UniProtKB/TrEMBL annotation, chain A:
InterPro entries in alphabetical order: FN3_dom, FN3_sf, Ig-like_fold, LIFR_D2, Type1_Cytokine_Rcpt_Type2
Family label: Belongs to the type I cytokine receptor family. Type 2 subfamily.
Name of the protein: Fibronectin type-III domain-containing protein
This protein's GO CC annotations: plasma membrane
Keywords: Glycoprotein, Membrane, Receptor, Repeat, Signal, Transmembrane, Transmembrane helix
Keyword Glycoprotein listed: yes
SUPFAM superfamilies in UniProt: Fibronectin type III (SSF49265)
Domain Fibronectin type-III span(s) in chain numbering: 343-438, 439-535
Localization: Membrane
Membrane spanning stretches: 725-748
Membrane topology, as annotated: Single-pass type I membrane protein
Automatic annotation (TrEMBL), chain B:
Alphabetized Gene3D superfamilies for the sequence: 1.20.1250.10
Superkingdom classification of source: Eukaryota
Gene Ontology BP terms: ciliary neurotrophic factor-mediated signaling pathway; negative regulation of neuron apoptotic process
Alphabetical list of InterPro entries matching this protein: 4_helix_cytokine-like_core, Ciliary_neurotrophic_fac_CNTF
Name the record gives this protein: Ciliary neurotrophic factor
UniProt biased composition (Basic and acidic residues): 1-10
Organism from which the protein derives: Neogobius melanostomus (round goby)
Disordered: annotated span: 1-21
Sample GO molecular function, one term: ciliary neurotrophic factor receptor binding
Amino acid sequence: MTQVPSLKILCIFSPVCTVNAYRNKNKTFFITDIVDTMTRLLTVMVLFSQVFATRVTADKPGAPQCEPQNMLLSNVSRELLVTWEVHASCASLRDQLIYELVVLVEDKPVHQEEFAVMADHIGSSHSWSWMSFLPLECASHSVQIRSRYTNQTGPWTTGTLPGLEPSAEIQVYPQDHVFEVGSRATFCCIVPLGKTFSTMFLSNYRDAPSNMSMVNNHTYALTVDLLWPTLVSDADVKCKAQMDEGGSCAIVGYPPSDTDLQCETRDFQSVQCFWTVGPQIFSDPTTYWLLEKSCNGQPKGKCSQKVKVNNGERNWTLIARNVLGSIELVDEADLTKRVYMYAPAHMTVSAVSARNVTIAWTWTVQQYNLLNLTCQINLYDGTTNIQIEMCDIGLQSVVLNGLIPNWSYSAKVQCATETDFWKWSEWSKSISFHTKGDIPDALDVWMHNVNHQTLIIWKLLEDHQSHGHIIDYEVTWTDLAKAEQENKICVVHPTHSIALNLSTFQKYIVKVTARNTYGSSDPSQIFISSQSQDPEMITSRINGTGGGFSLSWAANVTASCGYIVDWYPVSGNSSEWLKVPPSNTSATIYSKNFKDGVRYILSVYICTEEAPVLLEKREGYVKEQRIPDNMFNNLRWQQHASDVTISWDQISLKEQSAHIYGYVLYCIDESTVLRVTTDDPEATSLTAAKLKMYSYTFTVHALTSEGECGLTTINANLSIQTDDLVSAIIISLVTAFTLVLLITVVCYRSWACIKQKIYPPIPEPVLTGKWLSPKGVVPYCPKEELPVAVPKLHSLPRMSNDGYICQRDQLITSTKIPELDLPLKKNILQTSSLTSTRLNIPSVWVGNSGEYYPV
Amino acid sequence: MAEQQEHIPGDEPEQAGSGAGRTGSALAVARLLHRECTHLLQLFREKESFSKDYTPDGGRIVSLSADSESSTVEQVLLLHSALRQCLGLIHCVIAKEEEEWGELEGDYESMRKNVRQRLEYLLHTTKALMETDKTILEVTPDHQCTEEVDGLAGVFALKMWTYRVLLELVHWADHAAQTLHKLHSETGEENDN
C-alpha cells in the first residue's frame, strides 16, 4: 500500500517521467497542462492524506462503525452515482459526519470533495453523484471514500466503474447527446484491439476550438468548445482507425428561453396564454405546460386550458422544458379584467328606411350580457369606411342614422369591455343592406351667357344625391316685373342645360327641380340680371398651379350666400362653377375638363339674395404650352423704299396656347440678321427699316413664357421701285436738257468769241489767180489774240479732260471702256500715232484718192 | 435544385407491346434508376460530410445466391427479388429518417422519394415482363424494417446504415441495368430470328 503512492509521487513531480512513460509506448501525449496540474495537485493531496490517514487509523481508530459499506458505482444519465450504506450503530452519532471522496479516472485523481451528513440523516444509505468531464464509458472511474467524525477518519474504501472494453467496432461516446451552446464537450473513441487510431474530428458543424488527447492505450478523447447551435442537422463526431470509421451524433442548442407570458380569457371558462418563443433545439423542440397541463398540439407560442375564471389576481404559470432544462413563466393577472371577447354573432338588419336602419347581434357567451361593453360599427358605403362607437351594458343592437337613401351598405361590429378595456374582439361577419329611395337632393344651378342667350345649367346629380332613378327636370322662369307670368319647360334627363332668350333689361328668377320615382326635389333658383355681367371689367391674368387654379379675392359684405367661381375655356360654350361659402375668400379649382394650353376665363361672383354680381374676372392657362409653328395667318410684307412692313392677321385667343407678351421679327439676308421687336401683344405688324435691296427671309415669332414660338416665315426680294426710277430719269433728262439749252444759249451768244478762241479764222493763202477766195470778215473778239502760227493741215488730235477726243471742230465720242480709260489717256498723250483698232475714232477723209488715213 | 422531368419510355408497362419493346422500357427505367440512386448517394454524402472514398463495413445487405450458369430469365427473376428487398430498405430508410428528423423537404428528401417511386415502377415493369401463369411475382417491399435497424445504436449508426443502403441501391440498380440489357439483347436476337 505505501509503495504505490510513493511511486506515483515520484512521477507526479517529474513530468519527464510521465512523458517518457508514454513515449516508450510510442504514443503521443495530449493531456492539457491544466488537467496535468490539477491531477498532480489532487494526487499529492490524496496520497498525503492517505499516508497520514493510514497512520491515524493505525494509531487511533476513528468511527469505524460509520465506514461506507456496500459501496456501488453506477452510470445514471451520464453521471457517476455512488451509493453506500453505514452501520446502524452509526445513527447514534450526535454531530455531523463527513465523508471525503476522491474520484480517479484511469487511476488518476481528478476530483476531491467532502460530503457532510447531518446528524438526523446518519444511519441510512447515502448517495453522491458527480458529472465526469469524460463519458463514463470511455475510462474507468474509481471513487475512494472514507468517513471523518470529530477529527477521526476511517480507512479508504474504493469502488470502480470500469470503462467499456474495445470491441470489434469503433465505439464513440457519448451517443446522440444534446449539449448546451457554449459548453465544452468531451467525446471519446474506443478503438478495436489491433487497430491503430487515425483521427477523430467533428463534422457537420461550424469551426469549433478542439483538443485531442489519449485516455489510455485504446481510448482517445476529443474536447470541443460548442459555440454554435445545430440548426437543421446534427453534428457528427467521427473516429477513424485505419479503414474503420465510427461516430456519434451531437446536438447543440439552448435551454428554454421563452419570455413575455400574457394570459387572458374569452369565455370565463378557460385561460389562453401567449408568449414569445425562444430558440428551439433541432429535433427536440421545447414542450410547454400551462397550469401543469401539456400544451402539445397547440399553436406555437399559444396555449389554452380549461379553468374557471374568477375575480381576483392569481398566477398563471407556464413551464417550458427541453432536454437542456426548463423555465417557469408567470403572469399575475385578474382575468376578469382581461376579456378578449368573441365577435358578435348572428348579425341582423331591421327597420330599414331611407335614412335609418337597426343592426342587431347576439353573444355566444352569456357573461357578455352583464358586461359594460363598447362596440364599434364599421359602415362601408362602397368607397369609405365610417366607424361609429356605442356603449351599453350587454350591447346587442344599434340604430344607424343619416344614411344615404337608395344606397347599399355593409356593416360589421367589434366589441370590447368598456370598464377594463383589454382588446377589441374580432370583427363580426359583415352584413349588407340597401336603404329605401327618396326624392332627389336640390340641384346646383348656374347660368352662362352665350350668343345673347342665357344658358341655364345644372350639375347632374350623383348616385348618392339622386336617391332613385332621375326621370326629368322642370325649369320655370319668371320675369320679376311680370310675376304672374311663369314659363315652364321640362328637360329630359340626362340633358342638364337649357338656353333661354331673356331680355337683358329685365330681371328673371329661374327655378329648376329634378324628379325621380319618389318625387321632385326642392327647387333651386337663380336670379338673372344684366348686372351679373360687366363687359367693361378688366381681366387680369392668372397662372395655373398643380393642374388647377388657385385664386383668392377680397371679401365682400354683400356676399350673403357666399361666392361662385365660374370658369370656361375661351373657345367653349359651357362653363363649370364652384360655390364657395361666405367665410371663404379663396378657392382652388380642379376639373377633369382642364387642358393644358387652353385659355380659361375665370369669374368670381358674389352670391346675393338676388342676382349674382361679378366681382373679378381673370384669364389664364392651367399650364401654358408652346405655340406651334406657323401660327401667324396671312403673313405678308410691304416695301416702302428701303423699309419693309411685315403684317399678319389678328391672332385669336383660341390659337394662343400661352400668353403672348409681344412679337419679334427677324430679317435675314445672306450675311446679316436684323431683329425687330414689339412688346405690344395686340400688334399685327412690324417694320424693318433701311434694308438693302436684297433677298430677305422674314420670320415672325410670338414672345411667350415658353420662349419665342409660333414661328412663321415669309421670303421677299427687295428692289428699287419703278416709280422712283421713272422720276429719276425724267428729272435727269430735264436737268440735262436745261443744261444743254443753257450752254447752247451761252454758246450762241458768245459764239464769235468761242469761234475766235477755238477756231480762229484761217488766213487765206496769198495767191494770185481767179480762184482767190472772197474777202473774209473777221468777227469781233473781246480777247482777240492774233494768230501766232500758220495752221497746218495735219495736226494731232487733242483730248479734252472729259475723255472726248476733238478733231478740228468735231466732237468725237467713243464707247467708254472703263478698263481702258487710263491707259488710253496715257497712250493718247504719249503715243504719237493711234490705231483705229484701239480707239474707234471716226476717220476723216483726207484727199480724194479713195484712201484715207486715220488721224 | 430545379425539378426535372424526364420522359420514360414505356410509361404503361401493362400495355407494352412486343417483348423487345418491353425489355427496352425496363432497361431504360433501370438506367434512370441507377442515375437517380447515384445522385441520391451523392446528396447524402454532401449532407452528412461522408468522404467519397469511404466504404462502410458489413458487405452486401441484399445478397442472392445467383448461379453463374443460370439463364438470363432466371437472373431477371432473381433481380426482381433483390429489387423488392431494395424497396423494403428504402421504405425503411425513409421511415427511420422521418422518425428521427421529421418530414423535411430538401433536395435529398425529394430525390429519396423519386428513387422509391422509380424502384416501384421498375418492379412493376419487370413483373409485367417476367410474370407468367406459373410465375407469380410480387411488387411489395420485401424487408421488415425492425430486423436490422432496431439493433442500431444511435443516430450515427442509423446514418451509417443509411449509407450502406444507398450503396446497395446503387449496386442493384446497376445490376438491374446490366441484366435487363442482357435480356433485351437476347430478346432482340430472338425477334430477329
